[in-house]
Amino acid sequence: MKNLFPLFASLCVLCGHLSAADLRVTTDFEGGSARVESIDQAARIIRFMPGGDPERGWPCWWYLRVDGLAQNERLTLDLAGSNLPARNNGKSTGKPLAAYWAMPERATFSTDGKTWRHTAPGKRDDGRIRYEITGDGGPLWIAWGPPFTPRDTDDLLAFAAKTLPAARPFDLARTREGRPVRGLCVSEATNAAPPGIWIHARQHAWESGSSWVARGLVEWLVSADADAQWLRQHAELFIVPIMDVDNVATGNGGKEANPRDHNRDWDDQPVYPEVAAAQKQLRAFIKAGRCDIFLDLHNPGPGDPTFFYTLDNALLKEPMITQRDRFIQFAYGRISKIKPLIPMSNQPKTTGASYHPLWRNISANWGCMNGNPHTVSLCLETIWNYQNCTTEGYRAVGKNLGLAIADFQRGKLAAK
């Protein structure tokens, strides 16, 4: 029996190898994107990089499904930055995008494709980062950040309409590739021309956290919360969770896309039908003198906290500056107190001629230059590379942004 033990042990190891399923990676689903370099089946390591087409925006977004991992088996995801030349300022730079844009400190994963959690912090080495995840015997979905796709927009709008009769889904436009860009209009105002509030997210497709901020705002807005009820009764709100639907659906980055970045398309001849449609609604608000708030939701650079972008004061007139600063104070007062902490700066960053060659075509700047004298037009950048930037954290930002809007509008009404 003693001499048979090594043979028995070898057979056990062999059977273990034979029973282990091969790891399989797929990205053929809405928002999926990755380029697999190699799969080490024995070590359970998947080496990959973002799969986006640089002509369709910065290749920093990635989202993949992994099958074949057993219960309690450890998977290592070994990520490199894209090696394809990226675009900037409307043309190719001839060199890859800096890898840190594709490398959050923590990856996001799900075992059901709906509920998203963070991995432990990744380990950086030689220009790459490794994330480890333990399987539960079923598929794993892993992404740069919590995915929010057009299908999620549909689910959110259906939830809102079911929750509140005054929440009305609408189709803003059809994209260049024929996909619907959908939004929600919410109002219980009895005034025939209430203050107009426009909020959209995801002009840059990779910035998925901004859509979750929009979701948190919608969930709060249609709730029984007293402040949400007050706001619905005193304003007309339009929320579009995804503007760049084509690039979100196809798993591309969107920022600096050819022929235009969505957020550099705000002139008199926009390339994108959804931008033209948003301008049409905003111009209707402006013509009626009721364009109160225009907010563009984004995610910033990997080292930035939450903050607002503002247009240089030299390019603005009162009362726009005072109203803008009041709104920022309300928003900072709400968002900076979220528990657990979502870091926020009370010092906005400034856009203008020194910021970007197409600064006039940036949406929030367009709102400032074309809006009513009292219009508040801002870009909110919500931090993404932080431990509390989960779906719950983003939704808390959205709720508190809604509360800040209510605070601001209530203050304006009281001052009249």
Mean pLDDT: 95
Low-confidence stretches: 1-19
In CATH terms, the superfamily of the largest domain is: Zn peptidases
Distance between the termini: 95 Å
Q: Strand pairing plus helix content: what structural class? A: alpha+beta
Q: What's the helical proportion of residues?
A: 25-40%
As a whole number of angstroms, the C-alpha radius of gyration is 23 Å
Total number of helical segments? 9
CATH class of the largest domain, named Alpha Beta
Q: What is the domain tally?
A: 2
What is the chain-wise order of helices and strands? HEEEEEEEEEEEEHEEEHHEHHEEHEHEH
- Strand content range: 25-35%
Oligomer: single chain
Strand order across the biggest sheet? Answer: 13-14-16-15-17-20-18-19
Overview of the molecule:
The strands form four sheets. The chain has an eight-stranded mixed sheet, sandwiched between helices. Strands 1-4-12-8-9 form a five-stranded antiparallel sheet, with no helix packed on it. The chain is built from nine helices and 20 strands. It has helices spanning 5-19, 150-163, 208-221, 226-234, 245-250, 273-287, 320-335, 363-370, 391-415; strands at 24-26, 35-40, 45-49, 63-67, 71-80, 85-88, 91-96, 108-110, 117-118, 123-125, 128-136, 140-143, 167-174, 180-186, 196-201, 236-240, 291-298, 307-311, 349-351, 376-381. It is α+β, with helices and mostly antiparallel strands. The chain has two domains: 18-143, Immunoglobulin-like, CATH 2.60.40.3120; 150-415, Zn peptidases (Aminopeptidase, 3-Layer(aba) Sandwich), CATH 3.40.630.10. Mean pLDDT is 95; it is low at 1-19.
